[in-house]
Amino acid sequence: MEPIVIVGTGLGGYTVAREFRKLDQSAALRMITASGGQFYSKPMLSNALAAGKTAETLAIADAPQMADRLKAEIDTRVTLLSIDPQAQTLEVDGDTLAYSKLVLTVGADPIRLTLAGDAADAVLSVNDLEDYAGFREAVAGVPRIAIMGAGLIGCEFANDLAGVGYAVDVIDPAAWPLGRLLPPEAGASMRQALASVGVHWHLGQVVNTVDRVKAGYRLQLSNGDVIETDAVMSAVGLRPRTSLARQAGLTVNRGIVVDRTLRTSDAHIYALGDCAEVAGLVLPFVMPIMQAGRALARTLTGEDTPVTYPAMPVVVKTPAWPTVVSPPPLDDQGEWEVAADSNGVRALFRDAAGDLKGLALCGEATEEKNALTRELPALLA
Ligand SMILES: Cc1cc2nc3c(=O)[nH]c(=O)nc-3n(C[C@H](O)[C@H](O)[C@H](O)COP(=O)(O)OP(=O)(O)OC[C@H]3O[C@@H](n4cnc5c(N)ncnc54)[C@H](O)[C@@H]3O)c2cc1C
């Protein structure tokens, strides 16, 4: 029997492997990854500087330790080049591997904006341990950094960097931070809280040009403003890695399309994590990956198990203004009810029938997270 092959050793790959081993100790399991295969908590990347963490100290276990724990063969620094679903084989760096079942957990790529200027290639993004090592090097010993994007990751890095004394400029086309997740009052409170720890906002603007200057970089914004800085980070979003699946003829939409058993359009290939679109949902977060990993492990043992998604609010790791969000579905009709004071913001999105469909809690209002989450509908019941 050929092994089950998992491509990717991020949270998706290691979660499904661990959950599978709880159910089956003997089936052959092989993992391949383009990375070094360290097990680490990716969410910590945006809080790691203030915590004094290096890429080395963020790693919880290395690939040999994981191979031992999971009774799996783990090939690191090996890139999947193509998939042949008919032959059930993979082409990897000069070799061909056969699989009985294949799990794709290849993650997502940071979106790169098209920028003018001679330093567009110097813009950093932080999406894995190696990126983090490069980022630490780039900001070591300099006082200033500019961040493009005021979404979850941009705001978290801004808080972390400002917290350890960097002068941080954040540029975003929206009128307030976390513009897609927070109603205006909550966005304004985040803006103010991060400003109070030293974040300098450039909202309603985009970066047009990044040029090298004698000491660092010069950013030209769409309103003509100029920012001088020492490092530039992009945090404008992620795009699921779908090209190998597409080339193999699998159905791809925003992500690799899978049903609730995490099965792709090919009966022997599954996908989960940031690369996958599960029953129409692309949710690049830890909680959905844990749910999917548990369900898929059972399916891999032969017992088809649909994933369920309860309501899963996301905690924004901005200690200057603790925040929890569960945005309402895009097509939902309803209104935000907002109560705000200097201690917090409690914004609840209710539909016409008065049912809770989304929330944004900031400051002291985050204490209500568990009680309110129980009122939210499941995403996949
Ligand atoms: C800075 C940051 C902070 C975050 N904070 C939070 C948070 O607070 N809460 C939350 O819920 N979520 C958070 N997230 C999101 C969460 O961390 C991700 O959803 C999750 O880690 C993704 O796991 P994954 O296994 O799908 O992808 P990844 O961890 O990206 O793993 C992909 C794997 O695939 C491998 N790979 C890719 N292509 C190939 C190839 N061709 N051949 C071989 N191997 C390949 C890679 O080497 C890697 O091992 C954060 C993300 C970031 C970047």
- List low-pLDDT spans: none
Number of helical regions? 9
Bound small molecules, by name, code or SMILES, are: flavin-adenine dinucleotide
Quaternary status of these chains? single chain
Radius of gyration: 22 Å
Distance between the termini: 35 Å
Approximately how much beta-strand content do the residues carry? 25-35%
Largest sheet, strands/sense/barrel: 5 strands, parallel
- Global shape: globular
Instruction: Give the total of beta strands.
Output: 24
| Average pLDDT level | 97
Helix/strand class: alpha/beta
Please bin the fraction of helical residues.
10-25%
For the biggest β-sheet, the strand order reads 3-2-1-7-18
Task: Report on the architecture of this protein.
By secondary structure, the chain is of the alpha/beta class. It is 23% helix and 29% strand. It is built from nine helices and 24 strands. Strands 3-2-1-7-18 form a five-stranded parallel sheet. A five-stranded antiparallel sheet has the order 20-21-24-23-22, covered by helices on one side. α1 packs parallel to α8. The longest helix has 15 residues. The protein is globular, with a radius of gyration of 22 Å. It starts with a strand and ends in an 8-residue tail after the last helix. The model has no long low-confidence stretch (mean pLDDT 97). It binds flavin-adenine dinucleotide. Flavin-adenine dinucleotide (FAD) binds next to α1 and α8.
